[in-house]
Amino acid sequence: MTTTPPLRALAVVCTLNRSPAASSSQLLAEQVLELLAAEGATTELVRAADHTIPPGVAVDVGEGDDWPALRERVLACDILLLATPIWLGHPSSVAQRVLERLNADISETDDEGRPLLSGRVGAVAVVGNEDGAHKVAADLFQGLSDIGFTLPPQAVTYWVGEAMQGTDYQDLAETPEKVRSTSAALASTAAHLARVLRERPFPAPPS
Question: In this protein, which residues make up the domain named NADPH-dependent FMN reductase-like (predicted)?
């Protein structure tokens, strides 16, 4: 009897701060990973700022580039969660850089001629104390889709505090119920879609 390996979920946290600084983006990503683990996935978290990721649109830009090793972790996952704060109404510059480096694979294909990153599920987590969660999600959705990821229904969870105030997600005494239920919906639909794509991969493009 063949045992199907568990789904693999990878969260890339795109806070501007290196570890061990506290991060609201990481907290929300960790909560989503816990829910994905409850769906049967193995989970892993990477804080991008802890690695050297030079600018560029290449798989490897040379000496000192940590991206090739991170890319291998992306290629090994079934579900990729990008977690970002909102800065000036946009995803963090770190999130943009991750997408730009992933863009190196946009023209690469697998043995069947499908986009190299197809068959993987993309999802987003956003935190901030200013407006813009939907806009940030839309930006990341477009990038993930262009690269080859498939988006499930309710592919984003977010928390946005009162505008122009200093409260962060990590400052809350408890997780708001609406955030918890939205994160649970994301985990459920992402895991379901990842299983479907494993069982029924996208067809090869017509020749």
Answer: 16-154
